Amino acid sequence: MIRLYYDLEKTMQQQYDLAALVLKEAQKQNQALRKNDLAAINACVAGLEQLGLKMRELDQNREEITVRLAEQINLSPDVKLTEIAARAPEDLSFRLLYLRREIRRCLEELKEQVEFNNLLTRNAMRFNNMMLGIFRQAAGATYGNSGQLKDGAGFGAALNKSV
To answer: What pTM did the predictor assign?
Structure first.
């Protein structure tokens, strides 16, 4: 049973380390968005996807360990970490709760960074759409986004119907 506590601590430490890497990658993405560096943005997105897959694996591993540990100490499988930590040896209990706090703190920072990155992305998309709209009007677009005829007043006059 003690081995499971140590496995849980190790998995949570890996989760914390990985969450810190995800946060750094999101911060790099932020810088790339600010510089409008498409190559760096794509590299960050690919890196975040890989880190996300690793985080899912670690989370599944943590859940499996938690369920096995809960069974051994006669708790329900959906037990909270605080209840498991309460039954751990004192020094291990402190470390588990500390890791829990640090993971939550890191994920809160990540959440804020992702929200800011999403805001930057939406603003860039809005700007791009505005610029595309300007260029489309200058080129005399005849169809709108819905496929309906738009600004086609000069279109009929340009056809030579005498043939």
So the answer is: 0.76
